[in-house]
Amino acid sequence: MTTSDAPGRKLTAKGLATRERIVRAAAQLIYEHGAQNTNNDQIRQAAGVSGSQLTRHFPTKESLVRAVLAWQADSIVARHQAPELGELDSLAALRWWADSYIASQDMLRGGCTFGSLAAEVVKTEPIHRDAVAVGFERWHELFKRGLSKMRERGELRPEADPAALAHLLTAAFQGGALLDQASGDSTPLHDALYGALAYVESFAAER
Predict the structure, then answer these.
(1) Does residue 120 register a pLDDT over 60?
(2) By three-state DSSP, how is residue 156 classified?
(3) Does the predicted model carry a pTM greater than 0.90?
């Protein structure tokens, strides 16, 4: 989280708390209703702030949406850095990652928190395309780093391409989450993730 809202202006601890509360409230509302259907009054009431506090931290809707995109990306990265996942550098860790999302009711309720917003704004508000790209790149890098370590240790064959496999895992998750959201059934996400993992495992070195 940033410690200032404008160049040269540092936030106090109270200001940071207020900013965080606004972003959290906006993130929840946007997740449930979409960016286009979320207005300042709804955010102000949900965050418990005044109109002047809201505009002080986020003078435009665009600045708030970018903050929410960054916050959602931070949340996704944090979830992928849970102790149980280690460095995402083993097949067991990748299976644990898949299982944790397949079991999550969040996927059935509203889809991926970052992906849902990204899909909306990348078409309707191209100004946010760079923020979306940065968020996905951070996510992709986590998988790529783990898969690279597996290849370096000889657990994956040399022809395994960590970057391509990382794209596959991310795309399988996004597509599966969307299908889950549409159907209210976790089967599509299960099939997409375990299909992607099976392909990753096809590069496992023979022991």
Answers:
(1) yes
(2) strand
(3) no
